[in-house]
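dumping this here before i forget
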Amino acid sequence: MDDYDLVASPTANPLAPLVELLPYARDVGLHLVLARQSGGAARAMFDPVLQKLRDLNAPGLLFSGDREEGPLLSGARPSRQPVGRGQLVTRRGGAVLVQTALLPEPTWEIKFEDPDTDTTTSHDPSTADPDPM
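structure:
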């Protein structure tokens, strides 16, 4: 979930029902990816979902942020980093400096085959108007 800080609130959290499943995530095939701003992250650690992930020592990726936020994942603090660089924090490996890559959007097309006319029509959704109305 992107922008978790905008979605979750103290009174309504759409991911709250997942808290009880997080300890069994591997067993049930649950993969949870959360992204949020680093500002206010220390306060957000009291959120039930983030607290459970922290209690379980779930791996995390800390990108650039203010060191004053304090330790967020297994004692690792955010720090100022170039775009794409961060700390991968795992239970076994601790914090390791990593560089991520921004890849271009994949291109793809949909082909429609009409067996009655023996024709094929292609459509590239990346060129379509996202709001045709």
